[in-house]
Amino acid sequence: MKPEEMKWSVWTRNMERLLRLKTFPVGLKMLENRSELDGNPWVRRPPEKLSLCQLITIVRTFDWTVGATADELATPGCASVIGLAELPEFVTDGTMRSTVWLEKKEDAAACEAIMQRIPCGKYEAVLLAPLAYDPFIPDIVLLYANPAQMSLLINAIQFDRYERMVFYSVGESSCSDVIGRCFVDRVPALSIPCYGERRFGHAADDELAIGLPAEECSRIVTNLETLYKRGIRYPISAYGAQVSPQQALEAVYGFTRLAGRDPSVK
């Protein structure tokens, strides 16, 4: 199903039911004209400059719709990741990042150069909202979940279109790994929330973040439902660390039948 044909409130309820998410799925939409923010009666604009990860956590925990332009974001990195501004020279040459995160300026400059960002020049603002209210057709969807939940989500992504999943971490600035990569490459992009997202965006110790292309979301929730019917569910039940798993595995996979032998023969 195409993103414009979907009922995003239904999709959200199904994702929450199947994965038992703790926070709201977030829809992210890039706006070519900043006036679209002014025309939306639900948008809350930050009263002071905030980071991108702060805006995301407001949406996923406060249940608010928020929007911002480049001059409403706290750092040049925030604006650059979502294509609202170019990086100043003191960032691109590694000066800023090497004050804390990397020993050498050349390594810091390499880090800045390798980060995936939405290309600058097309968009003037970003809009973020809980998808539970069908606010708009998102460009990408942001989910936060623990490793077990993410594992099942990856299973759903692979179910009908298998590929070995590859994820990245640039270190500090995980928004690049999640938002930049997902938006530009149109692939599911999972990463570990960085120090900044934990300190300012309140990502929890047990949370991972993933960006999902909007066009993949219908397929993914359908596959989650199929896996649920096959017994692959969250929370994952513990079988017992000192009990042989053979009986459970036999019940699921039917090793005896697959091997074509008489189960009475030991």
Structure write-up:
- The structure is a single chain.
- 40% of the residues lie in helices and 12% in strands.
- It has helices at 8-19, 35-38, 52-62, 76-81, 89-92, 95-98, 105-114, 147-158, 174-185, 195-199, 217-229, 246-253, 255-259, and strands spanning 26-31, 43-44, 65-68, 125-130, 140-145, 189-191, 208-213.
- A 7-stranded mixed β-sheet has the order 2-3-4-1-5-7-6.
- Helix 1 packs parallel to helix 11 (217-229) and helix 8 packs across helix 11 (217-229).
- 38% of the residues are buried.
- The model has no long low-confidence stretch (mean pLDDT 95).
Low-confidence stretches: none
Largest sheet: 7 strands, mixed
Determine the structural class based on helices, strands and strand pairing.
Answer: alpha+beta
Number of domains: 1
Write the layout of secondary structure elements.
Blueprint: H1 8-19, E1 26-31, H2 35-38, E2 43-44, H3 52-62, E3 65-68, H4 76-81, H5 89-92, H6 95-98, H7 105-114, E4 125-130, E5 140-145, H8 147-158, H9 174-185, E6 189-191, H10 195-199, E7 208-213, H11 217-229, H12 246-253, H13 255-259
Parallel strand pairs: 2-3
Antiparallel strand pairs: 1-4, 1-5, 3-4, 5-7, 6-7
Helix pairs in contact: 1-11, 8-11
